[in-house]
UniProtKB/TrEMBL annotation, chains A, B:
It holds the Pfam family Peripla_BP_3. The lineage of its organism: Bacteria, Pseudomonadati, Pseudomonadota, Gammaproteobacteria, Alteromonadales. One of its GO terms (molecular function) is DNA binding. SUPFAM superfamilies: lambda repressor-like DNA-binding domains (SSF47413), Periplasmic binding protein-like I (SSF53822). It comes from Pseudoalteromonas haloplanktis (Alteromonas haloplanktis). InterPro entries: HTH_LacI, LacI/GalR-like_sensor, Lambda_DNA-bd_dom_sf, Peripla_BP_I. The keyword DNA-binding applies. This is LacI family DNA-binding transcriptional regulator. Keywords: DNA-binding, Transcription, Transcription regulation.
Amino acid sequence: MATIYEVSKLAGVSLATVSRVMNNNANVSDATREKVTRAMTELGYRPNSIAQSLASNCSNSVGLLVSELQGPFYGPMMSGIETAFRKQSKHVIIAAGHSDEEREQQAIEFLISRNCDGLILHVEAISDDYLIELSKGKTPFVLINRYIEELSSRCIILDNVKGGYLAAKYVLEQGHTDIAYISGPLWKKDAQDRLAGHKQALAEYNLNFNEQLLYQGDFMEDSGATGFQHLHNNAPQFTALICANDEMATGAMATAREYKIKLPEQLSIMGYDNVFFTRHISPPLSTINYPISAMGRMAADWVLSNVYHKNTSPLQTLFEPELIIRQSVLAIPQ
Amino acid sequence: MATIYEVSKLAGVSLATVSRVMNNNANVSDATREKVTRAMTELGYRPNSIAQSLASNCSNSVGLLVSELQGPFYGPMMSGIETAFRKQSKHVIIAAGHSDEEREQQAIEFLISRNCDGLILHVEAISDDYLIELSKGKTPFVLINRYIEELSSRCIILDNVKGGYLAAKYVLEQGHTDIAYISGPLWKKDAQDRLAGHKQALAEYNLNFNEQLLYQGDFMEDSGATGFQHLHNNAPQFTALICANDEMATGAMATAREYKIKLPEQLSIMGYDNVFFTRHISPPLSTINYPISAMGRMAADWVLSNVYHKNTSPLQTLFEPELIIRQSVLAIPQ
DNA sequence: ACATTAAATGTAAGCGCTTACATTTATAAC
DNA sequence: GTTATAAATGTAAGCGCTTACATTTAATGT
């Protein structure tokens, strides 16, 4: 691999001049620019961005930490982010934290030591304190799907209380009063919030929240299945089941069918996230829209604006959930 | 951020010694190792891996180029890869090529200039020649889902001809003789192969392949929808539709329903890939399994073995498709 | 006690770039 | 034709590490 030195040699100029034409920075005469360019193509020269990075202290790369690389939720998020950066020729280094504190921390350390200019973090297990401490460091970062009071300007979040509220309210409007709920793991803030919104809607309808109708899942499909099973066997009768995300709803539906329960006639089901496949399952799942791709793009814009000082459309941190009505919830006949 | 210099100062040793304890390489006495470690934690020292990279000419990171970051196909692949590398504390830099020649090429250049020690490439648009040329360079790479004769030992592929064959054979066994086919874009090798397998099965049943029953899609859901529409309006009657992947099958199914066609009673449908949501749609889709996650792990193993000289389980390049029978194909009554 | 050898540590030259500063060359003003 | 000024180019230091080689220190044998 040719180095800048060889190019300068061939072109008959100094290192600095070659560097200048690369970064088409300063004043270089057309003639020399031409010479240098020619030499570069002749040698098939490709700048070594590691070296650039070290010298300039700017890597043109941003770190992206997500919980998982697969699944209908993170895909669109990553994609939104990559697209935004690609347009500005920034590059993304990716890591998965697997909702595990140590792994998340490790990943952050790596991304920082890797000279990322900025970070986009979707972390779940790491403590607020760690992040607040991190914010005092020199690598700027933005948080997706997590709210920390002290860091509020860099938290891109969905109003999950409202989402939980919307889901429950819709089901209540259809006349249901016996509503089971499969939550996410309640140590996660979003799981808490969704449940809080749920309770709020119940309260508005003067309904008490019955703990027996609650099952705590883990946002994965299987826990929807076991959750349904548990509720079916142990809880009082219910005519509707609200799940804190679509994947658990999917699991619950599959299991309900195994119990020969007709959907949606005998049981209404509500999801959350509006993951892409919800409209393909049967019955098509009513759910709450989570504009994750847009939020990913917004996170990228945050970095573009705060780190690279590019002009972007105005930054927005709070996103609104939206009710998506399909066919999995039936009205109770009066 | 503290540098190695400050650590050496604090510990009262030379740069080299600090470097040695970092890479716990050479002979360092326990006493000095202790001193240095203490100094490191005291300063909160974190090695700058950019600098390490430049000096050692090894970045401990591998580049991963996929067509898209989202979708049920790439997610499991990326995940398999990340997991394998994480265990060996290698890191992955990701890029999306979007099936576009220029973007794929750009991405490869970036990954190389970024000093990736090795590359895992899922490319579609770039030419064989380019890749063959690339293989002469110093950055080793492995190809997923693409076969090039000259590079055969580094091509991790599925036997797509066989997959196409299995799908068609199964449908034929159910008594169908009028079978429509929605292919992938035929400039892609895998699309060609699947179709070839399809034709081969037809031939075994002494059936001619009818061009009118073929629609060329692009592997995306929408093209399944328009494909169905086209076939429904222009093609002769058919009792089964085989799609070259699950997403097109999904699109076709949705549209078929809009035409009030009962599935699977009036039309049998067959997919390909066994993407995770196929079992949730209705009717659950019969399809061909594509062990993409395993193939991702294998690609990672290839790099681990060929680049980092780690011992891995034996490398395998050819993977076998498998018929997955669910409920979307019905036997024709005799 | 002294040579011989091995272990521990230090020295300094890069890795391929960027960039402040110095120097040269061209342009303009008189 | 001089200067003054701006534009173009060159020089060299340094980014934070690794590593070949040189040097010092400790361990061993006689």
